[in-house]
Amino acid sequence: VGVLLSLPSLFAIISTPLWTALSDVLGDKRLVLLIIVPCSITLFALFQLPDVLWEGNLLTTHRFAWMFIIRSLLITFMSPIFSVIDTIALECLGSQKDRYGQCRLWGAVSWGLSSAFVIGPLLDVPSFHITTVFLIGNAITGIALLAVVYFMLPKPPTVSEEDSEGHETELQELLVESEEAENAGDLDKSSEHLVKLKHPDGIKEIDPASLLCDSALKDEQVEPKQSAVAVPEKAAVSPATRKFDLGDLGRLVVADGAASIVFFLNIFCLAIGSSVVENLIFLFFQEDLGATNTLCGISVLITVIFEIPIFQYSHKLLEILGTSKMMSVANFAYVVRTVGYTVFTNPWLVLLVEPMHGVTYGCKQSASVLYVSELAPKGMETSAQGIKNTISQIGQIIGALVGGVIMDAYGSVCLYRSSGIMVMLALASNVLVDLKRSGIYARPAG
After folding, report:
1. Strands of 110-191, DSSP E
2. Strand partners of residue 205
3. Tens of pLDDT along 386-418?
4. C-alpha torsion 41→45→46→52, nearest 10
5. Among candidates 422, 310, 394, which has minimal Cα distance to 355?
6. 55, 60, 67, 183: most buried by Cβ count inside 10 Å?
7. What's the pTM value of the predicted model, to 2 decimals?
8. SS3 of 198, please?
């Protein structure tokens, strides 16, 4: 089971940067989603095929091989989806990127509602096999996502549309410059009347005064005066030939100096810690504390409920704290949660620290997506989110593999206290960088 869960995840480390880079090179995130989403839906259904068609008749070795291959392909197509969607959300928000959390909270709402009122009740129906529930959920989710991508996401502008937009922007800039020149009396100089301007039909020489006249009398359709000189037309640049510099992407981790290095270290450590919790916590609850399935279900509901207010007010938190301090809050909440697990003997008491998951995930996700978007080179925003998620995926793989070994060898208490200590060290490094930047902590002169 560990091999089946962990090894195929290695494909995500390769596929996420490749798909996100392709998205930036093509300049068409919609097209990439229209490829990877249907493939993910199909592969998820195929992953359940042995249970549906063959049940116990398929040899164990054949079943394992089938599931390993299909899971590997599934992760290859599915892992970049969130990186692409996050980038699209940020683009739609425009100058209000700090409101990303208010978009992301609906993911928490849908997960909580579907778990509590759809998946759970269906699993309690004797005639519903768990595979059937997964297939229904996969179909509904996939169709809904495809509908949003195909019908609601705008198509990228064509080359001619990009040229037209660029021409309009340049025209507006020239109008402003011309108004300033007129106010200064410079338009009386005949030698400066003509200004070169890029135009879809070539490069024109245009009288700025005529542009002012055209702008003022546009409603009366006054034809602007133009004195054109034929110049060879400039070749248009298609989205596929946009510059994509892997060097710039590689320097993303050090783009903000020690702050960005420590930031990605925090992402990595939190990924390890989160993997330990997500993959092994129910074993700890049930085998060590004696928790019931009902208690485990309630714990999931509580974690989701507390994500929602964090996402809803993340823009306020970012305004007050900034991205770095938000990551520190996420780390601190994780430490409180995991150490709290190890001091309780009554399983119901773990519900007291479960809200800390909402704080950890909500703060980390809101801060990290925004911070990476600020670091990303122009035209490489999706790739930058892919790098962040790839670092996180590496941490999740390490957490799943190493966490299981530690739990078997030293027990659950040692595992969760160790992960808490690791994240606390990451928190300390983040705090030190913040203090140094604020001038509170600095090396003495000399």
Report:
1. none
2. 196, 227
3. 999 999 999 998 998 898 889 889 999 999 999
4. 180
5. 310
6. 67
7. 0.74
8. strand
